[in-house]
Amino acid sequence: MSVLEAEKQVICEMVEEGDAVTTELFNVFPSMSGVYAGATDSYDPSRHHVKVNLHTGTALRDAVARIKPKKTSGGIATIAILAVTNVKTGSINHLITPNRNLRITGQKLKLAGEQAGVYFINQMDESRTQVDPSDIALNHPIELLVVTPELPPGTYKLEVITQYSGTGKLLKTPHSVVFDRILTVE
Description:
The chain has two helices and twelve strands, in the order αβββαβββββββββ. By secondary structure, the chain is mainly β. The strands form three sheets. Strands 6, 7, 10, 11 and 12 form a five-stranded antiparallel sheet that branches. Strands 4-5-9-8 form a four-stranded antiparallel sheet, with no helix packed on it. A hairpin with a 3-residue loop joins strand 1 and strand 2. It is elongated.
C-alpha cells in the first residue's frame, strides 16, 4: 500500500510541475487551452484553462483488446421480499392478523402492470386470496403496506407479482416472488 501511495504522490507532483508521465497502464500530461494575446501576455484563469490529458498505455490497450463482449439480457428484475411485519402486533415473518396492516419490505416490489398483486397462498389447499387493490396503502419499490384479507386460521405463503422494472418502463412479462417464510393466521 505504501508503494502505491508513494507512486500516486510522485505522479501527482510530476503532473503539477508540467511533466508527462508514461506507464504501462496510462500516459498522462497537462496542457492549457485558451488564447494568448501576445508574447508578453500571462496566464489569466478567466481566459486560460489547465487540463489533464489521459491516454491508455500499452498494457491497458492489450487488456482492452482481449475483452470478449457478451450480450446479456437487460431489465431483469431482482424482485425480493426481505421481511413481513404485522403492524398490529409487531410480529416479524410469522403471525399475520386479518383485516390489519401488513408491511412488506424488499426490493422492486412496487405493484405495476395489469397482473400485479399481492396474494396469500393457503398451504393446506393451495387456494389463493388476493389483497384488494383498494387495500394497498403504500406502493413503493422497497415497501408495500397492505390490509391483510379476511383469511381463515392456517398457514400461508405470501406472493407478490409485478411488472415493475425500476426504469420507468414495465417488464414485458410479470415477475413474481414468493416469500420464503410461512406466515400464520391464528
